[in-house]
């Protein structure tokens, strides 16, 4: 497992190496990167613009724990505890809202940049296999976009649902928080790795059952491939090298299975 994990991480560096060594790939690499950065900037700007309004609404309608005019020492202590709980709620809601915004920008980035990612992945596969691939027409781009919207919507819902379910682990004393962080990282890394290794499979319209089987068989390698998940905004800034890395990963694993 450790060997597979390390092997997956190495593909990230292979992605950078192949991309830098092939200038013909750069136009397809720059477009999705710019799209992701613009989307992220817009989403964060919108979030922080309305942050004050969100805080005011929460303070007025939800965060009302407290004792008005406490008269004894123990009421003062209780009021301080309730104030701390209010503050904790505010921090949790802020973090959850920020995570939600980042997830939405991540999913939107994958959808909008999908045609360019597919084109980049296609050209990387051509470099690796030396096989002539179908020309990338506008009609095919629209078809791929519709397919990707469907798939990324499903994966986006799963991406939101799983962390929410894992959040329940926090109710377990002491180890709950540790389990939540560890499992969230493992799932997030696996999801990120699979998102890019899945590009060639999606383009070939490989059945979902086979794609899930591939993801299950290579789960530790995919976790290594998606290890950049732990770095904030890694996926948005380095989308292009990850497309290359994911395509190389798929091509090598697919060849091993032949």
User: What is the β-strand count?
Assistant: 0
Arithmetic mean pLDDT? 79
Give the CA-based shape. elongated
- The helix-and-strand class reads mainly alpha
Total helices: the number is 10
| Strand percentage | under 5%
Indicate the percent of residues in helices: over 70%
The sequence of SSEs as H and E is: HHHHHHHHHH
Query: For the CA atoms, what is the radius of gyration?
Result: 22 Å
What separation lies between the terminal Cα atoms? 22 Å
Flag low-confidence runs: none
Sheet of most strands: none
Whole-number tally of structural domains = 1
What does this protein structure show overall?
Helix 1 packs across helix 10 (239-257), helix 4 runs antiparallel to helix 5 and helix 5 (138-167) packs antiparallel against helix 6. This protein is mainly alpha-helical. It contains 10 helices and no strands. It has helices at 2-21, 26-49, 51-61, 73-129, 138-167, 175-203, 208-217, 219-225, 234-237, 239-257. 82% of the residues lie in helices and 0% in strands. The protein has one domain (2-39, 113-257). The two termini are 22 Å apart.
